[in-house]
Design goal:
Blueprint: H1 3-29, E1 40-44, H2 53-63, E2 67-71, H3 76-81, E3 85-89, H4 109-125, E4 130-133, H5 143-164, E5 167-171, H6 187-197, E6 202-207, H7 208-214, H8 218-225, E7 229-233, H9 251-260, E8 266-269, H10 278-289
Parallel strand pairs: 1-2, 1-8, 2-3, 4-5, 5-6, 6-7, 7-8
Helix pairs in contact: 1-2, 4-5, 5-6, 8-9
């Protein structure tokens, strides 16, 4: 080994050691390491639910997260403890009112509206800006009827949402593989509902994984409909795993398109890690999106 190569090796080793030291120090002291600042990074809690929430918050903040997604109301205070935002509140009145039963059926409105009118001020008090909702399954409803019914129910929440500055986001999900018969499965349907509700406090959660499966054309769709989108989720296609070169989407280009719309909200990682060390995968995918 030449003297020059030896110096290069020593320098590289020192840099690696310093980087690891910074990472450990950040994790220990709850300090977030710098990101490029164009994307507000979040990660969906359920993908890491085998990691205690406090540990996940601590380590997530160290790698650059500014929020945790899909936290239950009883978990919001934990995120706040670590100076992390609950970027999308996971709110629905019981498991039966999760994805299959939603606002598209009139008979669900009473329970749903009572629940959301109760949770909206609580979410605002904890500093949340967005909470989730679902259309529900079609169960024979036409798309037109589904939009009309859902708009009736959601309009009952808008006065409270506007008062408390809470945006209610309906998630776009695929009905081809994961959520058979789910009605809000196309961007056009979601946009039609936004227009029918007629408030800036009702928008869409655009899940890139789900919409790639249902309609593709992700970048153009985002650019043409961004005014109706208040939140984004990631995920690799096929398989909903890491958003790396093992899947068909190129996330740096998608993130660039999102930032070009002027979006300032959160992008939440919602892939299912294949790596046994889930946090290694999470950090890798954060870097992919950190344009």
């Amino acid at each position: 080994m030449t003297r020059r190569n030896m110096l290069k090796s020593i320098t590289a080793a020192a840099f690696i050691a310093e980087s690891l030291g910074n990472r450990l120090e950040a994790a220990e002291n709850h300090l977030d390491l710098p990101t490029k600042g164009q994307i507000n990074h979040s990660a969906c809690r359920w993908c890491y639910d085998d990691i205690p929430l406090e540990d996940f918050c601590k380590q997530g903040k160290a790698m650059g997260l500014s929020a945790i997604d899909l936290l239950e109301p009883e978990e919001w205070a934990t995120a706040k403890k670590f100076d992390l935002q609950a970027s999308m509140g996971s709110t629905f009145p019981g498991k039966e009112f999760h994805i299959k039963k939603g606002f598209n059926h009139i008979e669900n409105h009473k329970i749903l509206t009572e629940y959301y009118l109760n949770i909206i001020p609580k979410a605002a008090k904890m500093g949340l800006k967005t909470i989730i909702c679902f259309s529900g399954n079609r169960d024979g409803l036409s798309d037109e009827m589904g939009v009309g019914n859902a708009a009736i129910g959601l309009r009952q929440l808008m006065k409270a949402a506007e008062k408390h500055d809470i945006t209610i986001c309906m998630e776009l999900l695929n009905s081809k593989i994961d959520h058979k018969d789910y009605q809000c499965d196309k961007t056009d349907w979601g946009v039609a509902l936004c227009k029918a509700v007629g408030s800036d406090k009702f928008k869409l959660l655009y899940d890139i994984y789900h919409m790639q499966i249902m309609e593709g054309d992700v970048i153009r769709t985002i650019k043409e409909n961004h005014e109706y989108i208040a939140h984004y989720h990631t995920g690799g296609v096929p398989g909903r795993h890491e958003i790396d070169d093992s899947q068909e989407l190129y996330y740096p280009a998608i993130m660039k398109a999102i930032t070009e719309t002027g979006y300032k909200g959160f992008v939440a990682q919602e892939f299912i890690p294949t790596n046994k060390n889930k946090l290694v995968s999470l950090e890798k995918c954060l870097k992919i999106c950190d344009i």
